[in-house]
Structure formats: C-alpha cells, structure tokens
C-alpha cells in the first residue's frame, strides 16, 4: 500500500480508501462487512469513509461493529453531514445546530469518541459560510473532530472558506471529496489547482463510475439481475453512465487494458491515482475478492502511451455545472 498526505496536513491516508455507500448496512450484512474491513486492513487500507445519511445511519452502525475490534489509532475514520436525516426543518444542512447534533449522532452510531475527518457533504447556500466554518472549528477544539473537509464543493467556495478560516484563525479544511473517474474529469480544470493552492487533498469517489468502467454492462445488452443497475437502491445514480456511448467506451477500455495485461478496473483506478493531488481513491466492494482486485491497481503504473490513449478515449470535457450523480 502507498500512503499520501491529506492536503497540507500531517495526516496520511492510504491511496485506496474503503467507502461504505450502498454496501455497509445496505447490500452486505454484518459478516460480510467484517470480512471486507479485515481484508482492507490486511491490505494496508487505513481510510474508512462513511456518512450519516448512508441508509439513515445504518452504514455507520455497521462500521462500528468492526471498529470496536480494531486498534483505533490505526484507522482514519471519516464521516459527513449535510443531507436531511428526518423531516424536521433543522435536521439538515450546515447550520451550527445541525452540525452540532449530527456529530453527536455519528459518534454515537460509530461507537467512538472522535472522528478523524468530518466532511461537509455538500455546500449549503442557505447558511453563512462563517457559521459553518466556526462550527467545524469548535468541534476540533472540543476534540470530537481532528480535521474537517468538504465534499463536492466548487473551486470558488473552497477558496472562500480557506481565506475566511485564515482570516479568523479557524482550523481550515484539509480535504475535498469530489466525484472523479474517466467519464467525470471536471475537477481537473479548477478544483484540483485551487485545492492544491489552498492545501486540500482529494478523496475521490465513484472512480469506476458505479461499475460501468469495469465493463460489466456491455453495450447493446440489458443489465443482469442483482446488479447496481437493477437494484432498487442506487439504480438512479448509475443511469447517467448507462448510455450506449459510455458503455461502448467502457468496452474499449477493456480492450486497451487487455493489450497491456491489465483489467479495465485496474486502469480506471490507476488513472485516478496517477495525480499526486489525489490523496485517496474511495472504492466500494461487496467482497474481499473484489476489494483485493481493486487494491492491485496500486501497483499499476501508467505509461505515457497508455495515458495518451486514455485521454483519447475519455477526453476531459468540462460540464457547465458540477455533476452530482451520487450521494457519496
């Protein structure tokens, strides 16, 4: 396993992190969760990422059952707040009230005294950014949170919050968790350079485009049963990748990978890891075997020729708005 510093902080995270969206507490049971986390730890993974909204807290509770048997100091536990947790008008967003109550709930469900990284799951236009930053600084001063970060924030908001924190003497965010894969390369234009300038590392999610980049959904064919494309939970998030054009591109990725003795999964993950500004690539897995294959991408080095071919197959077309294909 390789480790990279998370932004300008002293925190080191494994270049592959284990996510829990649509797996823990949802599609895999407690036994499978335990096997998965054990396999991750055996493979050197120290970053375990979750969120309060994942299956209404069930992912955090599932992770807690495994965390209690692990050396806490060896784990970098990351969770998030923002999305509604009930119908209550204040049980959502990034107000001081919601942040305060959300961390209490996450700590209780995770069975831990602190989280290593607490992330603002989205930007909240309804709350003054000063209120959010001050609330996060308070959590750090209380020792309930060691570092804080953001997720899917645009470059201008990242710059704004760091400038504010520097001015006010608040602890500044050290990370951003954006959507990033061969199809979705929008962060390359502004988010990556801005984050580097302001000291934020990237924890990228959906690096396999909900599994489409693995080639499991060949063009011209209906998705099989018991897949993410047909499952009730998550099928709405994969739909944007299930076009014939994108499935055809995934098929060409398989051909390219085979030419170099690799798999499409390995190339897609190695593509994300190629940039040192990306601190960790978050993967979701349903089995230890699937995770082991994901981890094998750490040892894949992309030649200049392969990079050029990937750029040709998956050009970095910048959308007008930030894509938001998933809750992760």
* Helical/strand content category: alpha/beta
Strand order across the largest sheet: 3-10-9-8-7-6-5-4
Which runs of at least 5 residues are low in confidence (pLDDT < 50)? none
> How helix-rich are the residues, as a percent range?
25-40%
Beginning-to-end CA distance, first to last residue: 24 Å
Number of H/I helices: 11
- Radius of gyration over C-alpha positions, nearest whole angstrom: 19 Å
CATH class type of one domain:
Alpha Beta
Predict the CATH topology of one domain.
TIM Barrel
Strand share of the residues?
A: 5-15%
Total count of strands: 10
Question: Any idea what the shape is?
Answer: globular
Q: How do the SSEs run, as a string of H and E?
A: EEEHEHEHEHEHEHEHHHEHH
- The overall pLDDT, averaged over residues, is 92
In summary, what is this structure?
With 328 residues, the chain is an alpha/beta fold. 37% of the residues lie in helices and 13% in strands. The protein has an 8-stranded parallel β-sheet. Strands 1-2 form a two-stranded antiparallel ribbon.
Can you give keywords for this protein?
single chain; 328 residues; alpha/beta; TIM Barrel; eight-stranded parallel sheet; two-stranded antiparallel sheet; 11 helices; globular
């Amino acid at each position: 396993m390789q480790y990279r510093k998370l932004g300008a902080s002293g925190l080191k995270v494994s270049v592959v992190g284990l996510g829990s969206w649509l797996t823990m507490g949802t599609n895999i049971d407690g036994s499978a969760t335990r096997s998965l986390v054990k396999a991750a730890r055996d493979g050197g993974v120290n970053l375990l990422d979750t969120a309060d909204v994942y299956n209404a807290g069930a992912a955090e509770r599932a992770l807690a059952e495994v965390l209690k048997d692990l050396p806490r100091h060896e784990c970098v536990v990351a969770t998030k707040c923002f999305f509604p947790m009930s119908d209550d008008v204040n049980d959502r967003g990034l107000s001081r009230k919601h942040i305060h109550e959300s961390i209490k709930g996450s700590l209780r469900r995770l069975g831990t005294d602190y989280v290593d990284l607490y992330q603002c799951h989205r930007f909240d236009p309804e709350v003054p950014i000063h209120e959010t930053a001050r609330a996060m600084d308070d959590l750090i001063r209380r020792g309930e949170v060691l570092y804080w970060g953001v997720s899917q924030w645009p470059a201008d908001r990242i710059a704004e919050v760091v400038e504010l924190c520097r001015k006010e003497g608040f602890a500044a965010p050290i990370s951003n968790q954006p959507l990033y894969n061969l199809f979705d390369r929008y962060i390359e234009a502004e988010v990556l350079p801005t984050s580097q300038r302001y000291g934020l590392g990237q924890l990228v999610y959906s690096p396999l485009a909900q599994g489409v980049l693995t080639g499991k959904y060949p063009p011209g064919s209906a998705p099989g049963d018991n897949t993410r494309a047909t499952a009730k939970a998550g099928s709405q998030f994969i739909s944007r990748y299930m076009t014939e054009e994108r499935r055809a591109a995934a098929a060409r990725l398989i051909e390219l990978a085979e030419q170099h003795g690799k798999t499409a999964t390995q190339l897609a993950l190695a593509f994300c890891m190629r940039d040192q500004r990306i601190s960790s690539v978050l993967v979701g897995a349903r089995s230890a075997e699937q995770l082991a294959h994901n981890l094998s991408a750490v040892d894949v080095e992309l030649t200049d020729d392969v990079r050029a071919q990937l750029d040709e197959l998956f050009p970095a077309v910048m959308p007008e708005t930030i894509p938001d294909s998933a809750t992760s």
